[in-house]
Amino acid sequence: MSLAPRRTAANTTTDHTAPHPLDRLLAARRPIVMGILNVTPDSFADGGRFDDPARAVAQAERMIADGADLIDIGGESTRPYKGATPVSTEEELARVMPVVPRVVALGVPVSIDTMKAAPDMARVVAAHKVPVVAMHNRDAVDPAIDILADIEAFFARSLDIAARAGIASVVLDPGIGFGKSPEQSLEVVAKLDRLRAFGRPLLIGLSRKRFISSVVPSQPQERLPGSIAANVLAVLAGAAIVRVHDVAETVQALRVASAIRAAR
Predict the structure, then answer these.
(1) pTM tops 0.70
(2) Known active-site residue 243
(3) What does the pLDDT look like over 132-143, one tens digit per residue?
(4) What is the pLDDT of residues 205-243, one digit of tens each?
(5) Domains in the chain and their CATH numbers?
(6) Is there a catalytic annotation at residue 209?
(7) Which residues pair with 73 in a beta bridge?
(8) Which of 116, 243, 255, 261 is catalytic?
(9) For residue 98, what is the DSSP state?
(10) Are 220 and 44 in contact (CB under 8 A)?
């Protein structure tokens, strides 16, 4: 079985002996905010807004100014609740390559949201000595399964593959919305601390997702309050990285929550 992650964190330095930028961020012991930059025409929350390279780079600049620690660039919508149109490797590269170097030049770590190398992902990641995010997914939703147990089994397999490939830095993402019912997504957030047993950084990507609408009916652009509430709770439960569309609002919420906890 392949490692099957969706994201690999791009190495922005040629010195493989130096700590990776992600390691330095994790060492700061504070929530890391990953800004989402979809250069696609059909992403569920912002499709078509940033498929022009100039607009994409301008959005990256805004997110960095708002406090983003990482920028996650995606060239193919994977739409957690179906409906995505697959694109070829050539089309995905044509979308991201005009953007990636310009965003890297802004001085923050960049990750690539892709699944194209999935059958060979472990070898590619090991060869380039970069961190990888292993995200749980399922081909179909099954409300009857123990979703936490399924995620734990997937993480165990992924970490075994990573170890055999020589990959040292693995971030675990439970894949909110991917192959999960809204109720299962809520359960994963509620029990996120259970996944800390793996001893790896946890990434949570729940921004604007449909499980929020299962609680309060809403369209993706109307789910900021629910996204913030869920992200704050996820961080309190152990998430190290939150992947979000709304950087400024999330940064403010996390800093205020941290300050309140520090004042106890």
Answers:
(1) yes
(2) yes
(3) 999 999 989 999
(4) 999 999 999 999 999 999 999 999 999 999 999 999 999
(5) 7-262 (3.20.20.20)
(6) yes
(7) 37, 112
(8) 243
(9) T
(10) yes
